[in-house]
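Incident log, support desk, overnight shift.

02:14 A customer reports that sequence design results differ from what the structure should imply. Their input is reproduced verbatim below. On-call engineer (initials T.W.) acknowledged and began investigating.
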């Protein structure tokens, strides 16, 4: 796999980042989660997507509830996972802003490599760029890119038959929305066995 070490394609990101954050978790995972970019107070410090900051702790609690993490403490910075977590963009943007279209384009090849390597049966993007990036150009539908897509199951034939199950970002998701997403993931990916 081609890694982005020393990458300078995005000067603003290269100047701002503490580190380049690649995907993390089980290489044979059935479920892959895709975020936007490493958080300044989270993954940019730990090197592990969705860790340490407020949204990372909420996300890790969800993984523990689903049995996708063997940890009991959601604050563990290098959790042992039975899933794979990654981001579309590998570096924290200045001011923790959303990445630009160009920054996303510069990093997409790394995400696609991870998707090809892990070959998950289910991908869980947290909407927006992440959903478009996971699903290529096949899913241009505005409905799919809207907040209404949260916890809705979509099928795709990219790489192989796969489920897309978008979720709202952990920093913006309500407890009720989190419960709905957990129920949908259990049903679609685990047959409600977890």
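02:41 Re-run completed on a clean worker. Output:
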């Amino acid at each position: 796999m081609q890694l982005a070490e020393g990458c300078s394609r995005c000067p603003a990101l290269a100047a701002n980042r503490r580190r380049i954050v690649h995907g993390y978790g089980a290489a044979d995972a059935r479920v892959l989660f895709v975020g936007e970019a490493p958080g300044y107070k989270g993954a940019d410090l730990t090197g592990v997507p969705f860790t340490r900051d407020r949204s990372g702790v909420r996300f890790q609690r969800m993984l523990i509830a689903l049995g996708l993490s063997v940890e009991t403490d959601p604050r563990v910075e290098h959790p042992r996972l039975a899933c794979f977590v990654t981001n579309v963009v590998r570096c924290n943007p200045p001011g923790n802003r959303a990445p630009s279209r160009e920054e996303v384009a510069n990093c997409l090849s790394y995400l696609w490599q991870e998707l090809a390597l892990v070959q998950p049966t289910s991908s869980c993007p947290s909407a927006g760029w992440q959903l478009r990036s996971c699903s290529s150009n096949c899913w241009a539908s505005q409905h799919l890119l809207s907040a209404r897509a949260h916890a809705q199951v979509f099928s795709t034939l990219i790489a192989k038959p796969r489920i897309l199950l978008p979720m709202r970002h952990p920093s913006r998701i309500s407890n009720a929305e989190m419960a709905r997403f957990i129920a949908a993931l259990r049903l679609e990916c685990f047959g409600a066995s977890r």
